[in-house]
Amino acid sequence: MVTVKRAAAGIAMAFLSYSAAASNTLSDTRSVGMGGVGVASANYLTASFHNPALATQNKRHDRFGMILPVVGARVYDGGDLHDRVDAFQDLNDLLAANPNDPALQEQWRAALLDLDNERIDGDVNVGMVIAIPNRLVSTNFFVSSHAMALLTTDIDENDLNHNQIVNSNAQGVMGGTVDIGFTFAKEFIFLDRDLSLGISPKFQQLLAYNYQDNIDTFDDDDFDFSSDYVDKSAFNADVGAAYALSRNVMLGLSAQNVFSQSLKTNISNGNQATFDVNAQYTAAVAYNHPRFTVAADVDLNSNKPFKEQAYKTQFARIGFEADAWRLAQLRLGYIHSMTDYADDLFTAGIGLKPFGKFGLDIAAIYGNEDNYGASAQLVFHF
Known about the structure:
The chain is α+β, with helices and mostly antiparallel strands and about 375 residues long.
């Protein structure tokens, strides 16, 4: 008996196997440890993932930097949906063998109703960046990829009345992007303060996949991502601004994927989904002290990755980083969901730079109901 959790993981892993040579468009490990902030608090190395204007935020001694690679993953399985689907499929087999058992019929209906409007979702990210800061135009080269898998269940009331699966179904959809681009940022003087403007033009490849089947026969052995996924290429860009309100306070504003893109998936059992990549606007503020950083980011609009699904996200984030003589960093964060389709999350991370030039960052994500994730990256400064 196959599980829905395994099925959702199959979608995400299939995409990752395709795009692992690329990278991550969601976030870097430092940001993950700090609750996902970065629009006002990213450094010159991680600016391409958050706000291209911050590519100017290098120290005087920074001449070259690299992140290679950053890898992260997150999964949510609220209420052990995979176990409940397995239990229902077992009951369905028993009912097929004993169709006139009233007690079994009642158990079957209760188990089916328990699956209505449930979900499993997950993200996979891989990334890298090469940064060359300078006084003329700070420049980063980045490659990033992000895949999101969403599996939902929909129960039809007519099936409950007839003790037979006709329309109740499970659907797994996946959408992902692979970005290859450059970040260019320049610092100006505005009202006696530093104003940085940045842009990241990028080649973008979109990938999408859809699999739907009746809830009693949903099986990941039927997944055929390698031949059934669809893709298309496009041009996109991220833009941003960062303003030093004072010596320690930075304001940030970013717009990612300013050109909206859309991609229809393959057709599965007569069903098709639409993967949308729309502009995401975020405002932020950060207080940067030599020994610590406190930052807050707020999404100004929601993100709805699949047109036919109600699922959408919008977050407010807060993060903290304490620095110990640039040799080690402790990070904490909190992510508040502004929609009913995601939960609040706690994050924590550490950074280690024992030799100054080379560093390792690790971060973890935790939330209620089996919502967890992890991220790691290698960092080089010269």
